[in-house]
């Protein structure tokens, strides 16, 4: 199987995972080493979930979360451009911006044209977020019907795929959401890339592999 290199635009990765981390670079923030506990925990959890899907993956961390779990669009664009320049196969973006950006859209289009698979989190409620809403990204939302390794094909205007949203399956109180669903999907997609599936075939493969088709029914 090929070695898959995965870019994580997130909040850093704890030293415990350093054996899987090839490079780290910080974008924005008061200093390269300034980041809060929440940002580091989020990035580390995302990295762990990706590695569950493909333990042999090589990770490149682009840190855009620092003291809080928010990021400026310019930092996200710079992070994406850097990762594409590093030759990654997939970029996981467990984040969402509420304002559409032409600059970010162009960066996503350029990454897609370079053959990079883009995965972005899309919350189940609250309207569209970017970059998930761009056509060049696979938008992933949490689907409580899915267990680890399972996918649902949601086929919604702004959401493509559903995946297990929980950090610890069966324990929602331990944390969950679209961020972790995107990470689980990226792990699964990375395993498929390692087996030789072309990035351009990923959407069709997910539709065929999905254990469920159609959105999860949520009670108000």
From TrEMBL:
PROSITE patterns noted in UniProt: SUBTILASE
One Gene Ontology MF term: serine-type endopeptidase activity
Domain Peptidase S8/S53 positions: 3-141
UniProt-listed GO biological process terms: proteolysis
UniProt family annotation: Belongs to the peptidase S8 family.
Protein name: S8 family serine peptidase
């Amino acid at each position: 199987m090929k070695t898959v290199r995965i870019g994580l635009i997130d909040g850093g990765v704890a030293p415990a995972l350093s054996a899987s981390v090839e490079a780290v670079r910080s974008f924005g923030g008061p200093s390269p080493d300034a980041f809060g506990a929440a940002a580091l925990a989020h990035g580390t959890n995302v990295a762990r979930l990706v590695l569950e899907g493909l333990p042999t993956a090589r990770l490149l961390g682009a840190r855009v979360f620092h003291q809080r779990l928010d990021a400026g669009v310019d930092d996200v664009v710079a992070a994406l451009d850097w990762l594409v320049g590093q030759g990654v196969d997939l970029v996981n973006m467990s984040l969402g911006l509420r304002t559409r950006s032409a600059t970010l859209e162009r960066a996503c289009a350029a990454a897609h044209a370079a053959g990079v698979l883009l995965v972005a989190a899309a919350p189940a409620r609250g309207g569209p977020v970017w970059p998930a809403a761009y056509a060049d990204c696979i938008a992933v939302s949490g689907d409580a019907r899915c267990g680890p390794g399972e996918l649902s094909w949601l086929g919604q205007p702004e959401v493509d795929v559903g995946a297990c949203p929980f950090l610890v399956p069966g324990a929602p109180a331990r944390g969950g959401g679209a961020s972790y669903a995107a990470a689980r999907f990226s792990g699964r997609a990375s395993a498929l890339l390692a087996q030789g599936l072309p990035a351009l075939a990923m959407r069709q493969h997910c539709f065929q592999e999905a254990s469920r088709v159609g959105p999860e029914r949520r009670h108000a």
